[in-house]
Task: structure prediction
Amino acid sequence: MSEVELHRGQVQVYKPGSQHVVGDGFHVRNLFPSNDLDREVSPFLMLDYAGPTFYPATEIPRGVGEHPHRGFETVTIVYQGLVAHRDSAGHAGVIGPGDVQWMTAASGVVHEELHEKEWAARGGTLQAIQLWVNIPKASKMSAPRYQTIGDEQIPVVDLADGAGHLRVIAGTVEGKQGPANTITPIELYDLRLKAGHTVTLDLPAGYNRALFVLSGRIRVNGTAAGEAELAVIHSHSERGTIVLNGKEDAVVLVMAGEPIEEPIARYGPFVMNTKQELAQAVQDYQAGKMGHLS
Result:
């Protein structure tokens, strides 16, 4: 593909489609589904950008209390602050800057996400991303699982010519494989690109591709994107090449995934294929079949 073709009408940039508070501890800007991008970004279902928000010291940690999920995976990436997780399957953990929490809700789990207690008592700035990743119908009722992925577990790839580096959370770059064990095939990178430099990413053919800019300014295949903006690559080509130029030092989340060509039915914390399956999820939660936190 020529450079001209790469720059021709393939990228659309979206600003946050809504802003709200999740519980009392996560002030978020939503990029999707508020921008109606289900098909364009499948298998990704939701991207909430939390913060950066300063929270004063408190003895009672803020956050979001007990709530259920079924039918997908939640991925939380922390850039600043500390977040504590606890769920009805007996999993618990704390993640901080550079860490990732990968929770497969699948058939159903109940969990809470709060500011870590000692961090909350000191106060501080929280900055994080939460992604929801869809899973195919065949796996939606599989057993829940949980992965805490520490910063030290995530391989780092240095970019050519001193352009910066990227961390491979999921997928593979230059032979380095990310530690996330995913149901749906995806590539997920934490990219740090320096101003004045260019990097070319070769992502799997046929994957949907999007980039979220946390800070700085970049060009994606020639199209400008800045802080808190999502660049979605609408390409008719099977090639997955993306050319990024750093206009300023930038922090970027790179997402690519194999589309799931199945119906999507949503209701709050449940994502299934039919309305009947959603009704069953509500009944199962109310009956305690997803468990509760003690």
Observations:
- The chain is about 10% helix and 50% strand.
- Residues 1-9 have pLDDT under 50 and may be disordered.
- The CA atoms of residues 84 and 94 lie 4 Å apart.
- The first helix runs from residue 3 to 6.
